[in-house]
Amino acid sequence: MAEERRFGVGYALAPKKQQSFIQDSLVELARSRGVDLVRIDTEKELADQGPFDCVLHKLYGQDWRRQLEAFRVKNPNAVIVDSPEAIERLHNRISMLQVVSELKIEHESNTFGIPKQIVIYDKETLFDRQAWEGLKFPVIAKPLVADGSAKSHKMALVFNHDGLNNLKPPIVLQEFVNHGGVIFKVYVVGGYVKCVKRKSLPDVSEEEKLGSLEGLLSFSQVSNLATNERTDDKYYKMMHLDDTEMPPQSFITDIARGLQRGLKLNLFNFDVIRDARFGNRYLIIDINYFPGYAKMPGYETILTDFFCDIVQKKEEGEVEKIGLESYEALSCDKLGKL
């Protein structure tokens, strides 16, 4: 009797990421469709573990990159999701958005881009007004390094030059654009694209730009704001978040596909805002690798579909096509028996 072909996915994640992502519901659904999720022991050499058909990871550092390369040499047919070189591009907030300007996407009624931004490497440049040519207050100050650490999420809305005193370069200063207090988060998992809307920083009036005494407002993430009088539930109910129109799905999907090809990544999300000055212009303000997928309803099915897509492409010798085409829900066991 032929033995059922099982597909092994080894995962190497930080403890907090593992706790949120590797839930029993995901493990059980994947198992029922022929995929075994196996924790990689980071205390041992990766090349000595397995066998794995695929390695799913979100760890950093030179030693981990060395281990991935050794594993790749030993297992040339295994799929690594994703390439450390591709992931590293998202660790710099300037290089991460350069890919947006390289996209060639035309849409009949909508346009997209990125906000004006500059990088500040030292305090001297921070207070040099000539370096700010073309950039006006208010601005969002973000750490240049975006490695997923708590420090990399510490941001500030800066209203005037007084607010610059508490900033520590290297940082990116990004033009703040009024966007109705709503941010669109677009999740990409291989061939799957999902857009959801979340609360964001409220719009800033001309009076607030001129009259802010504190100079800046600190927060951790645009969609997870610090509590203050402008960001409570009453304010957002007044904004009718539920009534906010979503961007056209085909438009968002085209951008997602373009970013996927340009970045060479399968697991990421990007944040989009709608410029309140032009209702049909969208700005991409951030891109993150391997975000919190467990927040998405039905994430178990979406990720299991992705694993099975890898199986199919691997069996067909088309690994380079993973994620670049839409896929149907596959049953991994239909791909053959051993």
Q: Which features would summarize this protein structure in a list?
A:
alpha/beta, 10 helices
What's this, in brief?
This protein is of the alpha/beta class and 338 residues long.
Oligomer: single chain
What's the Cα radius of gyration? 22 Å
Helix content bin: 25-40%
* Backbone structural class: alpha/beta
- pLDDT averaged over residues: 85
Number of strands: 14
| Beta fraction | 15-25%
Question: Total number of helical segments?
Answer: 10
Shape: globular
Give the N-terminus to C-terminus distance in angstroms: 10 Å
Provide the low-confidence segments as ranges. 225-232, 324-338
Succession of helices and strands: EHHEEHEHHEEHEEEEEHEHHEEH
- What summary fits the major beta sheet? 5 strands, mixed
- Describe the strand arrangement of the main beta sheet, using strand numbers: 5-14-13-10-11
Characterization of this structure:
The N and C termini lie close together (10 Å). The chain is built from ten helices and 14 strands. It has helices at residues 15-21, 24-32, 62-74, 84-88, 95-101, 123-126, 206-211, 233-239, 249-263, 299-315, and strands at 7-13, 35-39, 54-58, 79-81, 111-113, 117-120, 139-143, 155-158, 171-175, 182-189, 192-199, 216-219, 267-274, 281-289. It is globular, with a radius of gyration of 22 Å. The longest helix has 17 residues, at 299-315. Helix 2 (24-32) runs parallel beside helix 10 (299-315). The protein has a five-stranded mixed β-sheet with strand order 5-14-13-10-11. Strands 6-9-7-8-12 form a five-stranded antiparallel β-sheet. A hairpin with a 6-residue loop joins strand 13 (267-274) and strand 14. With 338 residues, the protein is an alpha/beta fold. The model is unreliable at 225-232 and 324-338 (pLDDT under 50).
